[in-house]
Design brief:
The chain has a single domain, classed as TIM Barrel, CATH 3.20.20.70. Helix content is 35%, strand content 15%. Helix 4 links the parallel strand 2 and strand 3. The structure holds iron/sulfur cluster. The site of iron/sulfur cluster has 11 residues, from loops.
C-alpha cells in the first residue's frame, strides 16, 4: 500500500494558487506548465522574441533599492566609464542586425533626459523602424513621454516592483502614474513580476501577474532577483529554476488573452516550456552585477538566445545585412 502523495488533500482549486504552492510536486504541476506553454505558442504563433538591453550608465543612484548594485548606499558597483554615444549606437545596431526584436536602453533613475533623447534618435536612425526601441529609465510625466516618443522610442519597461515602497525608494503610486502616463502617451508597456525572491508570497505575485493584464501590457513574465553581495536582500538568496517556471506559467494563466511577449529572466532552456517565449540578452551596466560587462552578461549572447528559442520550437526574427 502506498501513502497518499504529499499535499494530495490540499491542492487549491485555483490553478495559479496551485502553481505557487511549493508543497505540491512538480510532477503534479507539469500539466499546468504544459497548458501555459500551449497558450503562449497559440497566442504568438510559436514566435520567440529576444529582448536586448544595453545598460548605458551605472551612475550611483539615490533611490536606494534594496536589491540594486547601482544604489549609492550599498557601494557595491565597481566604477565603470559610461559608454560613448558611438559605442551605444554601434551595439544597438549590431543587436538589431543580429535578429533582436527589442533594443532596450536602460539607465539609472535620474539619467539626463536630453542625452537619452539624443541616444534614442541616433539608435532609432541606426536600427530602422521595424523593431521596438524600448526605454527603461526613471519616472516620467506627459512631456517626457511625448519627447521620448518623438525621439523614436515605442515602448517602455516600467513596473510596480514587488514590495515597492518597502524594498525601494519609490511608491506604488509613483510607478503607476508613470505607467498610466506612458500608455496615455502612446508607448507600449512591458510588465514583469520582479524582482522575485523566495520571500514573496503568492498573493504578492498574483497582484502583479494580474496587474499586467489590467494595464494592458504588451508583455508579461517574471524576473528573478539576483543576489548581489552588499545589498540588503542578498542574504535571502534566489528562487529555484523550478519555481521560476511556475511563476512564468502563472503570468500566462492570469493573462490568457494578451501579453504576447512572455519573458523570463535569467534565461534557461527549461523556462521556454512553461509559457515563456521571450528571453533577455544584457550587456554593459547591470543592476544585477557588481561591474559592467564588456560582452554579453554571463556570456549569454544573441546567437545563443536565438539557438535556445529555436531549440524550444520557436521561430525567431531573421538576422539582416548590416547597414
Ligand atoms: S533599481 Fe533603479 S531606482 Fe532603484 S537604486 Fe537601482 S537604479 Fe536606482
Amino acid at each position: 500500500m502506498h501513502d497518499a502523495p504529499m499535499g494530495a488533500d490540499r491542492v487549491p482549486e485555483n490553478e495559479s494558487e496551485a502553481l505557487l504552492d511549493t508543497r505540491i510536486s512538480d510532477k503534479r504541476i507539469n500539466p499546468l506548465l504544459a497548458r501555459a506553454d500551449a497558450m503562449t505558442r497559440e497566442l504568438s504563433g510559436s514566435r520567440g522574441y529576444i529582448w536586448t538591453a544595453i545598460g548605458i550608465d551605472s551612475t550611483p543612484c539615490g533611490m536606494g533599492c534594496s536589491f540594486c548594485s547601482h544604489a549609492t548606499k550599498w557601494d557595491a558597483y565597481q566604477d565603470s566609464p559610461p559608454l560613448s554615444a558611438e559605442a551605444i549606437v554601434a551595439r544597438a545596431g549590431a543587436l538589431a542586425d543580429g535578429g533582436s526584436d527589442f533594443v532596450v536602453l536602460r539607465t539609472t533613475q535620474f539619467y539626463d533626459l536630453n542625452r537619452l533623447l539624443m541616444l534614442g534618435r541616433r539608435v532609432r536612425d541606426r536600427i530602422g523602424d521595424d523593431m521596438h526601441l524600448v526605454v527603461n529609465t526613471g519616472e516620467m510625466d506627459a512631456d517626457t513621454v511625448r519627447a521620448l516618443k518623438d525621439a523614436g522610442f515605442s515602448m517602455v519597461y516600467h513596473v510596480v516592483r514587488l514590495r515597492e515602497g518597502i524594498d525601494t525608494g519609490h511608491t506604488v503610486e509613483m510607478r503607476l502614474r508613470t505607467i498610466e502616463t506612458a500608455l496615455a502617451g502612446g508607448l507600449e508597456v512591458q510588465y514583469l513580476i520582479e524582482p522575485l525572491g523566495p520571500e514573496h508570497s503568492p498573493a504578492e505575485i498574483l497582484t502583479e501577474a494580474r496587474r499586467a493584464r489590467s494595464i494592458g501590457a504588451s508583455g508579461t513574465g517574471v524576473m528573478a532577483r539576483v543576489s548581489v553581495m552588499g545589498t540588503p536582500l542578498a542574504h535571502l538568496g534566489q528562487v529555484s529554476e523550478a519555481y521560476l517556471r511556475r511563476v512564468a506559467a502563472v503570468a500566462r494563466l492570469e493573462y490568457p488573452d494578451g501579453g504576447v511577449h512572455l519573458c523570463v529572466h535569467p534565461p534557461t532552456p527549461s523556462v521556454l516550456r512553461c509559457g515563456s517565449n521571450t528571453i533577455i540578452v544584457e550587456q554593459a551596466a547591470n543592476p544585477r552585477d557588481t561591474k559592467s560587462s564588456t560582452g554579453p552578461w554571463r556570456g549569454f549572447d544573441l546567437p545563443t538566445a536565438r539557438a535556445t528559442l529555436q531549440a524550444a520550437g520557436f521561430a525567431v526574427r531573421p538576422a539582416r545585412e548590416s547597414h
